[in-house]
Design brief:
Order of helices and strands: HHHHHHHHHHHHHHHHHHHH
Distance between the termini: 24 Å
Strand content: under 5%
Number of helices: 20
Structural class: mainly alpha
Shape: elongated
Helix content: over 70%
Radius of gyration: 26 Å
């Protein structure tokens, strides 16, 4: 990806102005051969000439160079998806260099830097060593610190704090995580009524559509939080089988009732997988295989057609327009191939050792491996 497009822009501006290379050269006091070399990427204009060239064509120096210090939401989405595909199919080191080059170019575009942090958090584990993974995590921390020091947008700064906390957790520094997040989480819990107040305000001004949209979004977000925290609960409470089974039963009912297998298959798959781990720990092979089957079925659905993109349904009718407004739109944070690779590799967990030779387990692994081959 080139950082400057001056050669293309010179040609474009000259054609728009309907002038020849001779006329440009005459105005600037250079030879026609010099202008020709600029347009053919054989050389660059002297830096002192850039203001004169910009004045001649009636553009800014940034426009002449093709430099855009800020990216649109659509541009951020496109770049993110391109880089996510590169992480799945290209060299990790080359893709990181490409990312860093873009970070340097758009160092003041904080929405873009925020998404780069998301991108790196979703892919740092692909680095070929623990030291390389640690370097990426430290890059995320440094970039987050830059955002916090220079960005004036509260929401983006809050995300930057979350990124720093995630990095500290990955680096094994739980006390730092507590220091970063404890007060923030407490203050957010105290302000949970804000959404209901907003909904009532919409009703009072007669804006029923916004009130209904806010209600749907709130229900959806809280459902995701419920399932997500249930996954965490199963992981930290695995020594309490009764508690885990009740969590699996209740959360399973929620997933079924709200069709989250289809609306949020990635999160539902995480829940089924963690449930399988719990049952495998207690040697309940049949229940573990049942959950792994649901895991395999949900991952397969996730990667079929456009199901990987966020979407609503006949109940959540307001979600599609909301997703379209998000920074990354409805697109996923990771490439399909990488998701499938992780799904297949997750079956190698030692906890499944006792069942790995069963026909049912081999069938599940075979089905996922077929999908893996498809995306290679």
């Amino acid at each position: 990806m080139r950082l400057l497009n001056i050669s293309e822009n010179l040609v474009k501006f000259r054609h728009e102005k309907k002038v020849t290379q001779d006329e440009v050269a005459s105005f600037l006091g250079v030879t026609k051969a010099s202008v020709s070399k600029w347009e053919n990427e054989q050389s660059m204009p002297d830096i002192l000439l850039l203001p004169q060239i910009a004045v001649y064509f009636g553009v800014t120096v940034d426009e002449l160079l093709g430099y855009e210090p800020q990216l649109s939401k659509e541009q951020i989405q496109r770049i993110y998806q391109e880089l996510a595909k590169d992480f799945a199919s290209q060299s990790f080191e080359d893709t990181m260099e490409k990312c860093k080059s873009l970070v340097h170019r758009y160092y003041s575009c904080f929405p873009f830097l925020q998404q780069i942090c998301v991108l790196w958090l979703n892919h740092f584990m692909l680095a070929n060593s623990q030291s390389a993974q640690r370097e990426v995590l430290e890059e995320i921390s440094d970039l987050s610190e830059h955002i916090l020091k220079n960005c004036k947008i509260i929401e983006i700064c809050n995300h930057a704090l979350s990124f720093k906390a995630m990095v500290e957790l990955q680096l094994g520094n739980p006390h730092n995580v507590i220091e970063i997040l404890e007060d923030i989480v407490r203050s957010q819990n105290l302000s949970m009524s804000n959404n209901s107040v907003l909904i009532q305000a919409y009703q009072m001004v007669g804006d029923t559509d916004k009130a209904l949209s806010s209600v749907q979004i709130s229900i959806y977000i809280h459902l995701l939080e419920l399932v997500g925290t249930s996954v965490g609960y199963l992981a930290i409470n695995s020594d309490n089988l009764n508690g885990c089974e009740e969590t699996i039963r209740r959360t399973g009912c929620v997933i079924s009732a709200y069709n989250l297998d289809k609306l949020q298959p990635n999160l539902a798959a995480q829940f089924y997988y963690q449930s399988a781990v719990v049952y495998a720990i207690y040697k309940q092979t049949d229940k573990a295989l049942e959950m792994l089957h649901k895991f395999e079925r949900t991952v397969t659905y996730l990667l079929t057609g456009d199901n990987i993109n966020l979407h609503g349904d006949s109940y959540f009718t307001a979600l599609d327009s909301w997703f379209a407004q998000l920074d990354l739109g409805a697109a996923p944070p990771r490439d399909k191939k990488l998701i499938m690779d992780n799904a297949v590799e997750s079956l190698d967990h030692p906890v499944f050792e006792a069942m790995k030779d069963t026909e049912a387990f081999q069938k599940i692994k075979q089905n996922l491996s077929k999908g893996r081959t498809y995306y290679e």
